[in-house]
Amino acid sequence: MKQLVFFTIFTINVLFAIDIPKSTLFDKRIVYTNFNKDDVFQISAKNGYTTVIQFAEDERILDMASGFSSGWDIQDRRNFVFIKPKSYESNFAIDELGETVNKKMIIDPNPNDWKTNLIVLTNKREYVFNLDLNTDKNSYFKFTFKYQQEELNKKQQQEKLKKEIIQKDEIREELNKTAIPRNWDYYMNQNKYSENISPTFAYDDGQFTYLGFNSIKDIPSVFLYENDKESILNTHIKKDGNYDVLVIQKTAKQFVLRSGDRIVGIWNKSFGINPKEVQQTTISKDIQRELIDGK
């Protein structure tokens, strides 16, 4: 007994996605589209006319290749590619019997035979185009790419940078604010020729000590004098009007200012009388200093 075997044939439809550009409101022959690295872009040209493709301003064409280079004149200039259909000369022809014969002839562009693709490589991206030759009015004169995602990323980066700059300015402004003095009861002793390292004023805010120097004076090194020993201190300088203010990041009973052989002793006569209830790491209550790797 013979067996019958049935085969079921499935038809698979393959969809090709080609990006169709949008025309401007002013002229349908001027079109634009958003770049997508996974899209094939449609170029509709017309015999006797040139179509220009415009890429990003910072792009430069590195290489181009077409599947039918003899039928298309393709040239690049900086970030532009110029395309136009062209006739070409053939050494072969088909006679009335359908056989190939040696014969020179000029083949003019026609919509059926001039379909091909174009690959463009730039210093930033890869582009794939589908080239068609049209006889109707739907051909393109100019094809411009837009890069919305990259423009969005650039805008977000600029906004982030702007916020960081504003934040740094706010921090700098906050740190440069004049502290509220709590104690002016400071005295000093200076040796000979030490006038130009002597502060014009001295006060503290209960946590930091501030020594003001006018523009003609030198800024000395500062040491804590305690138990007949000197130890170096953390300091920084900020502007306060016409004065350079040396900020000592602590209060103490005695300090020593040194610059070569010049020495000035600073004595806080009211040390510990009016301390701050809450200690801070900076002048501002809104900004805290954190040590990184113990530094």
Percent of residues in helical segments?
Answer: under 10%
Query: Any idea what the radius of gyration is?
Result: 40 Å
Gap from first CA to last CA: 95 Å
Poorly predicted runs are: 1-15
Principal-axis shape equals: rod-shaped
Protein name: P-type conjugative transfer protein VirB9
Coiled coil: 147-178
Pfam families: CagX (PF03524)
InterPro entries: Conjugal_tfr_TrbG/VirB9/CagX, VirB9/CagX/TrbG_C, VirB9/CagX/TrbG_C_sf
How would you characterize this protein structure?
Helices cover 9% and strands 42% of the residues. The chain has 1 helix and 22 strands. The chain has one helix at residues 148-175; strands spanning 18-19, 22-23, 30-34, 40-46, 51-54, 61-66, 72-77, 80-85, 88-94, 100-107, 116-122, 126-134, 142-146, 186-190, 201-204, 209-213, 221-226, 229-232, 235-240, 243-248, 254-259, 262-268. The strands form 5 sheets. The protein has a 6-stranded mixed β-sheet with strand order 2-3-13-5-8-7, with no helix packed on it. A 5-stranded mixed β-sheet has the order 1-4-12-11-6, with no helix packed on it. A 5-stranded antiparallel β-sheet has the order 14-22-21-17-18, with no helix packed on it. A hairpin with a 4-residue loop joins strand 15 (201-204) and strand 16. It is rod-shaped. It starts with 17 loop residues before the first strand and ends in a 27-residue tail after the last strand. The relative contact order is 0.12.
